[in-house]
Amino acid sequence: MTTFYDEVGGHETFQKLVHEFYLGVAGDPPLKAIYPEEDLGPAEDRLRMFLEQYWGGPTTYSERRGHPRLRMRHVPYAVTPAQRDRWLLHMLNAVDTLDLDEQHDGMLRDYLTRAAYSLVNSWDD
């Protein structure tokens, strides 16, 4: 069975997506401030593994970290609408670098947008 992961280019595509995203985060001090590690490398690895697994790739994320529990893992951090918007800006800019076909591009953007909105847990900017 072919998955979204396979159809869009597998590991290389997700590695590029997440790397481009974290280049944006690194240059955005208010957003970078919510990341627990100074070095964004571990966060980059976790996000790439999560997205790969979500879209039908290797299950490395769950093997190393357990169930994704996306909302629960973000509870310790105040995720505001402003941070959501900053996150989405960099993530959607990263999607722009992938040159996906219209259907895959739309599916990815839709998921990322819904996920970002679902993680807002603080209305204090």
Mean pLDDT: 88
Mind telling me the C-alpha Rg? 14 Å
Largest sheet: none
CATH class type = Mainly Alpha
What is the terminal-to-terminal distance? 44 Å
Unreliable runs, pLDDT <50, ≥5 residues?
Answer: none
β-strand number: 0
Note the run of SSEs as H and E: HHHHHHHH
General form:
globular
CATH topological fold name:
Globin-like
Number of domains: 1
CATH architecture classification? Orthogonal Bundle
Family: Belongs to the truncated hemoglobin family. Group II subfamily.
Keywords: Heme, Iron, Metal-binding, Transport
Pfam family, one: Bac_globin
InterPro entries: GlbO/GLB3-like, Globin-like_sf, Globin/Proto, Globin_bac-like_CS, Hemoglobin_trunc
How would you portray this structure in words?
The structure is a single chain. This protein has 8 helices and no strands. It has 125 residues and is mainly α. The protein has one domain: Globins (Globin-like).
What layout of secondary structure does this protein have?
Layout: H1 4-7, H2 10-26, H3 29-32, H4 41-54, H5 60-65, H6 70-74, H7 81-96, H8 102-118
Short description:
By secondary structure, the chain is mainly alpha-helical.
Task: Considering the chains and any ligands shown, give keywords for the structure.
heme binding; Hemoglobin; 8 helices; iron; globular; Globin-like; 125 residues; mainly alpha; transport
